[in-house]
C-alpha cells in the first residue's frame, strides 16, 4: 500500500497548539512507535523549523529524526531513509527542494520509500512536490506553475484559504489550461492518498475543506467531503 498525506497548511509549524493533523499522520503507521523523519530542505534546513519539529514529535509515541542536506546524518542516505516508517517534508521553496533532491538522488530514494509502503507526508512545498504539477511562489512575486515529482496525478494548490491570491490564481491557471486540473487544499486540511487515489480528507479546523478544481466549459470548484478530527 502506497500512502501520501498532503497538508495544505497547519501541523506543528502553523498550529503548534492544535496537534490533530500530526497525530493523524502518526496514527496511519501500523507500528505503535513509528520512526518519523523530517526533511526540511525547502526551508534551507532552517534550524528553528527543525527544532519546532522535535518540540512536538519528541513528546509523542514515536522515534523522531531529521535529514539535513547541509549536515547529512549518514553517508548512505538511502539506508537512512528506507528504515523509517514516515517521512515528513516541510514547507518553503519548492524549486530549491526539487533541485537539491535531484542533485542528491533524494527524489529516487523517496520513490523507493513510497513503493515500499513508507508513508510520505508534507506541508505546502512538502505537499505539492508529490504531484505532477503545483502552484508555487518559489520564483518571487506571484504564483506560478512548477513541475514536480509526479507520484500523484494532476496538480495541487496549498493554502487555498490562507493566502488571498491562492484561489483566484489557481482557478485562473486551470481556466487557461496552463496547469492541469487538480486539488486545492485549505490550511488545516490533509488529503490522504492510498495507491494514488484519495482515501480520506481530514481537517484540524471545523470549516476547512479541500476542493476539486477543474475545467469544464468554465472553471469549476467542487467541495470534497472532509472529516473534522476534533470533537
Structural description of this entry:
The chain is α/β, with parallel strands linked by helices and 231 residues long. It is built from eight helices and 14 strands. The protein has one domain: Class I glutamine amidotransferase (GATase) domain (Rossmann fold). The protein is 28% helix and 31% strand. The strands form two sheets. It has an eight-stranded mixed sheet with strand order 3-2-4-5-1-10-11-14, sandwiched between helices. A six-stranded mixed sheet has the order 7-6-8-9-12-13. Strand 12 and strand 13 form a beta hairpin. The chain is globular, with a radius of gyration of 16 Å.
Q: Percent helix among the residues?
A: 25-40%
Quick one: how many beta strands? Answer: 14
The CATH topology is what? Rossmann fold
Q: Calculate the terminal CA-CA distance, rounded to whole Å.
A: 29 Å
CATH architecture: 3-Layer(aba) Sandwich
- N to C succession of SSEs: EHHEHEHEHHEHEEEHEEEEEE
CATH class: Alpha Beta
Question: Which helices and strands occur, and which strands form pairs?
Answer:
Blueprint: E1 3-7, H1 11-14, H2 20-27, E2 35-39, H3 47-57, E3 63-66, H4 77-82, E4 86-89, H5 94-104, H6 106-115, E5 119-123, H7 125-128, E6 131-136, E7 144-147, E8 152-157, H8 166-175, E9 182-185, E10 189-194, E11 197-203, E12 210-216, E13 218-224, E14 227-228
Parallel strand pairs: 1-5, 2-3, 2-4, 4-5, 6-8, 8-9, 11-14
Antiparallel strand pairs: 1-10, 6-7, 9-12, 10-11, 12-13
Amino acid at each position: 500500500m502506497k500512502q501520501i498525506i498532503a497538508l495544505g497548511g497547519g501541523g506543528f509549524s502553523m498550529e503548534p497548539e492544535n496537534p490533530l493533523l500530526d497525530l493523524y499522520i502518526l496514527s496511519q503507521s501500523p507500528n505503535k512507535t513509528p520512526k518519523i523523519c523530517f526533511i526540511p530542505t525547502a526551508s534551507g534546513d532552517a534550524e528553528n523549523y527543525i527544532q519546532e519539529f522535535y518540540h512536538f514529535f519528541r513528546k509523542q509515541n514515536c522515534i523522531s529524526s531529521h535529514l539535513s542536506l547541509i549536515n547529512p546524518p549518514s553517508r548512505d542516505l538511502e539506508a537512512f531513509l528506507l528504515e523509517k516508517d514516515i517521512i515528513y517534508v516541510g514547507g518553503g521553496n519548492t524549486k530549491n527542494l526539487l533541485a537539491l533532491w535531484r542533485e542528491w538522488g533524494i527524489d529516487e530514494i523517496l520513490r523507493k520509500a513510497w513503493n515500499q509502503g513508507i508513508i510520505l507526508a508534507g506541508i505546502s512545498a512538502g505537499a505539492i512536490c508529490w504531484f505532477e504539477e503545483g502552484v508555487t511562489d518559489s520564483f518571487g512575486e506571484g504564483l506560478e506553475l512548477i513541475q514536480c515529482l509526479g507520484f500523484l496525478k494532476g496538480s495541487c494548490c496549498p493554502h487555498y484559504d490562507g493566502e488571498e491570491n491562492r484561489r483566484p490564481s489557481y482557478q485562473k491557471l486551470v481556466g487557461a489550461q496552463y496547469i492541469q486540473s487538480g486539488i486545492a487544499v485549505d490550511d488545516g486540511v490533509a488529503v490522504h492518498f492510498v495507491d494514488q487515489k484519495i482515501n480520506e480528507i481530514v481537517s484540524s479546523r471545523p470549516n476547512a475543506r479541500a476542493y476539486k478544481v477543474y475545467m469544464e466549459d468554465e472553471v469549476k470548484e467542487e467541495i470534497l467531503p472532509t472529516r473534522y478530527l476534533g470533537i
